[in-house]
Amino acid sequence: MSLTYEPDAGLAPLEFTITRNLAAKSAAEREQLLVDPAFGTTFTDHMIDICWSVRGGWHRPRVQPYGPLSLDPAAAVLHYGQEIFEGIKAYRHADGSVWTFRPDQNGRRLQRSARRLALPELPVEYFIESLKALIAVDGAWVPSGADQSLYLRPFMFAKEAFLGVRPANKVGYYVIASPVGAYFKGGAKPVSIWLSEDYARAGKGGTGAAKTGGNYAASLLPQAEAYEQGCDQVVFLDQDRNVEELGGMNVVFVYKDGTIVTPQSDSILEGITRDSILQLAADRGHKIEGRAVSIDEWRSGVASGEIVEVFACGTAAVVAPIGVLKGRDFVDEQPLGPLAQSLRDELTDIQYGRREDTHGWLVRLDEPAGDAGSAA
Ligand SMILES: *Cc1c(COP(=O)(O)O)cnc(C)c1O
Question: Which Gene Ontology BP annotations are present (predicted)?
């Protein structure tokens, strides 16, 4: 499940050129913004920008003021959607240090997404270095309140200006950061889910397993349909009526005998939250199964009492119990149980340094005090 990253021998270190934001927020302004940040609306003072070209490879790594990008109107991403992204958080521990969670996994996933979208693969070491470089200048933006974190958004897109259909020869990789509070105010309250039967988010052999904007674009209309139906989120099925995911969160089923089942298919995005939660559950002795779960198995399992808990998970919201599944001609109340909350608590205790990290999942992003880094 968890693989340790072996650095590429001979990989040149990234030397970031740092341009300070002269209009950076004052400490007082920043503290004000960190009181109660709404998800994804406030951004830090700086961003990472690394170029890639066929001829030059990865080059010109920069830390620069956060601000608009200048893009040719013919940039390939605007026409053909050659784009991928990641989502990962930085957590402030009680001693003030800043950590992130399994960044090697996000780095590897960015590489898998890149392969599928015919984009260049950023070395995992560069991925982790880019997060550290941003924290070196914007570390003060990592909030310290309960359930708060700094959401990091690495992304990559085709910026070459041309209207031909082929992989772009010029690409940009960026990281921006946004302080966030608890995704669900007042704890993880159960969410209601709309079963999308008219729309799919991905297909066999498509881009469902890649973290790419196009999958999200395909999910917006069904998500709007979910809102119209009074639901919080939408769940997608594949062509064989097997459960896929919510389009931004993976789904997990808990069975009466303690077995935990999660849908497995080539068109589901492999969540790192899901992988971590299943590892914690396995540590507790739960049997874990990754396999196809049909919508009929879900509905009849809930009706018979065979399924005792259903929850969704992902970096942004961590864990969300599913309270209702609504379809065209049914509304199924979902059983609520203790596992979603207790696994969520165990995971966040590790992330915030309140519990021992026995799996070696945490990576420190800031420079320990007294060991001033070269990036400052
Ligand atoms: C990011 C994402 C998830 C959750 O992945 P995590 O690594 O747990 O954050 C699930 N589904 C989709 C489509 C995603 O983009």
Answer: isoleucine biosynthetic process; L-leucine biosynthetic process; L-valine biosynthetic process
- Domains, the chain: 2-181 (3.30.470.10), 191-351 (3.20.10.10)
DSSP string, 101-163: E-HHHHHHHHHHHHHHTT-PPPPHHHHHHHHHHHHHHHGGGS--STT-EEEEEEEEEE--B--
Q: Which atom of ligand 1 is least distant from the CA of 109?
A: 7
pLDDT of residue 90: 98
Query: Is 274:344 a contact under the CB 8 Å cutoff?
Result: no
Residue 277 alpha carbon to ligand 1 centre in Å: 13
Among 149, 151, 201, 245, which residue has the most ligand 1 atoms within 8 Å of its CB, making it the best to mutate?
245
Best residue for ligand 1 mutational test, from 207, 211, 279 (most atoms within 8 Å of Cβ): 211
Low-confidence ranges of the chain (pLDDT < 70): 1-9, 185-187, 370-376
